[in-house]
C-alpha cells in the first residue's frame, strides 16, 4: 500500500470511529489484499472498505455495507463482492452477522424503551427458530423487528425513522416486518388505530392517517377508511383502500408482476440474485446469480 492508500484507510477508520483492535485487523487485511493484488479491477478504495467491513465482522461488531459504502464513497454491490472475494482468497472464518447486535444498536439510536427492545429481540429469535431469517440481511431483520415491536408495544416509531437509522430500503423494512408479523400471529388491523373496520376520521387529517398506512396514500377520505380512495405509493395504482389492502400484493415476487422502483430494491428481495435490468414483469427481469455469476432472466435462473 502506498501513502495515499494508507491515508485513505486511516481516514475511513476515523470517520467510522472503529475501535483500535478492529482497526489493526483492518490494516493487516488491507495490506494482505493489496499484496495479493485484489484491488486490480476493483479499485483501492473498495478494497480498503472491504477490509474494514471484514474486520468489523470478525470482531463481532459488524458495520453495515451501506455504512461502509457511504463513508468510502463506493458502490455497495461492488463492496459486497469484494468482501466475498477477500474472504475466499484468505479462507477467513467469518461468522454470520447477528441481528441482535443491530437491534441493540439501532434501538438505542431510535431511543426505544426496554419493553420494545425486548419484544424486538423476541421477534428475531422467532425468525431464527423458524428459518425465516435465512437469506435475509441481518440489518433488515433487525429493522423489521424494531418497527414491529414498536407497533406491538404501542411505542410507535415511523417507518421513515427506522429507514433513516438502519439505512435499509423502505421495501426491505416492509417485507421483513410483514413476514415477522405473520410469523408471530399479529393481526395487521390491530397494528395502529387508523387501521380499523369502523373508522372515525373526525379531528384527523389525511396526512396524519397516511403516516399510519403501510405503502398506501389516502387521496379522498371517506367516513369508513376502507371505502376511501387510495394510491399505492410504490406503483401508483389507485382504488378503494380496502380493495388495495386485501388484493394488491405489491411485494409478492411470486406473482407475475411486482411493485418495485429500482433494481437495488428488487435485488434485496431476490435471494442469491442481483438485478441487472428491470422489466415490467418479474419473470423477464434480467438477473445475475451471485454464486456462479451466470446471467439470464429471473424465470430461467429462479430454479438455478
UniProtKB/TrEMBL annotation:
Instruction: Please name the InterPro entries in this protein's record.
Output: Cyclin-like_dom, Cyclin-like_sf, TFIIB, TFIIB_cyclin
Which SMART domains does this one have? CYCLIN (SM00385)
List the Gene3D superfamilies hit by this protein, alphabetically: Cyclin-like
Stretches assigned to the Cyclin-like domain: 7-88, 101-182
For this UniProt record, give its keywords in alphabetical order, as a comma-separated list: Repeat, Transcription, Transcription regulation
Q: Which Pfam families match?
A: TFIIB
Put simply, this protein is called: Cyclin-like domain-containing protein
